[in-house]
What we know:
Layout: H1 3-37, H2 44-84, H3 87-101, H4 111-138, H5 143-146, H6 152-156, H7 158-173, H8 175-191, H9 199-216
Helix pairs in contact: 1-2, 2-3, 2-4, 3-4, 7-8, 8-9
Amino acid sequence: MNQKSLEYTKKAHRFGRTSLIVGSLATLIYAFIIIVLLKVPANWKFILKGAGNVLILMIPVGLCEFLSIAPMIGPSGYYIMILTGNFTNLKIPSSIAAMQASGLDPASYTEESDVISTIAMAVSAVVSIVIIALGVALIVPLSDVLSSPVLKPAFDNIVPALFGALCIGMIGKHYKLAIAPFALGCILLGTGIINKSLVMPILVLAGVLIARLLFKKGLVKA
């Protein structure tokens, strides 16, 4: 990495960390106003219990996402993704599609892939904000249409359809690597033998080990 790239990376981390701190404070400001300024009583026992339940799930998930995603998209794109959300269903597909359209390999980090990924993440975030704004503006005029019983099955299956489409796309490209982790995930989730918060870390580790084994056996190529 040359000097200019090193300076860019340092600035990206500095600005990204500052943005995350500001974003975190902005997220908590409403609760601060309610509890401190308006003096609404808060039951800290239930608040801490709820926060603990969320952290039990999010700490291993966040760690796995960092280890698997950050090396692929670079620091700038990762900070944008963390700040704006919608990782799996929007930001990562946008980044991968942009890199592939540019002739870059998403699995191999380069300075070019960092730039392309950052642009893709930023454009994706702006498009999301525009669509959300349009949705808020049009939700009242379209409320009768959206609440129609005919559309209810579609809204009930948005998430399975979305992740199913992403899953099929990735499995189609790397089916040999996906078979064993997919089967293991079905077993762990179907039987409920372990806590659901532990399933993702286990599948990530299993996926890495299985990919390494298949590579050594010559069944997949780098």
